Amino acid sequence: MANPINNQQSPANTESALFPSYARYPLAFAKGKGSYLWDVNGKKYLDFMCGLAVTNLGHAPERVTAKLKDQLDQLWHTSNLFQIPNQEKAAQMLTSMTSGDAVFFCNSGAEANEAAIKLARKYQQKIKGEERYEIITFTQSFHGRTLATLTATGQDKVKEGFHPLPAGFITVPLNDLDALQDAIGPYTAAVMLEMIQAEGGVHPAGVEYVQAVAELCKQNGLLLIIDEIQTGMGRTGKLLAFEHYGIEPDIFTLAKGLASGFPVGAMVGKAHLKEAFSAGSHGSTFGGTPLATAAVIATLETLQEEHVVEHAAQMGDYLNQQLHDKFADHPFVLEIRGKGLMIGIECAGPINELILVGQEKGLLFVNAGPNVIRLLPNLLITKEEIDQAITLLSEIIQEYAPVVTAGSPNGK
Description:
CATH architecture of the largest domain: 3-Layer(aba) Sandwich
Low-confidence stretches: 1-7, 404-412
Radius of gyration: 22 Å
Number of strands: 17
Number of helices: 11
Structural class: alpha/beta
Shape: globular
């Protein structure tokens, strides 16, 4: 493809007017299509991070683009004081495709999780009449950066400097059923769980463990909340990751891939919870606008009609197998784990330098902790693109990874 960039330059090295909240790489992108991005200087990159599992249909998917363009010419915003037909249609599609019965639209994953926390407390206290408010979460989890969701997050690094944190959250180790049982008390309202701890190192929860958690919730009258912000919308080879586990949560949350890059989040719950979110219970000015839900509708239509989830499952198997074939005996690669097209490669040393080398070679990937490579290609990725990525990743690891001998403590 010819250089798609016209008369654009790299950002000037001037003092930014932005808060320095992000440690940004020295790259700026001007165009994206499918599995590729082009920076402002015209360099092409194979994208295996997808904006952190957001552009699940690749960059600028045609169906979503067309739907948004059409909606832009008609109506952007009215307010949730009025009926929004696109919002109703998107909700109907989501509930027909999943085990959920009711949807609340918001703007992000953090807001979706915040809504789930509020719904759990409101249901327990106002509908069941019990003074339950505590949410049990898990070490190394990640649920967002609002005060409530960062408190729910099981990583201390996101909490530094924000004390006092809200009360009502307990964190226990993942896959430790005894610890969970011990944490359940008279004030426990819900358990919030990720099927794969993406930010925490790409650690899947055990199948038997998740099933036992679901049973514990039923026995103790607790709501089970599944955070599908990163794992949902086909990322793991199922539309929702909890489908791998044979359970149905009371509540699950979505964002990232829900609208192919357009900002939107959703909390989806069972029908018996609807009464807890009666009029005035919760709200969002921009939640579920005609624009946002147009992108949701087009994304869901694409997933269904183009069998995207099935393709993701097949490509996930292929990617996993190729990675194991290539790196099974490499001393720097300790473990390859994940589901579908969410893969973590645990390494014997830090990988920050490898990310930079990858950018130099035209391959984009991200970390999941200091020593885990996280691969998040789009769900329409091809075998040829996977082969290209593995070739580049092999070059990066072979040439630049620290030398780890088989006899070292970190070796195999």
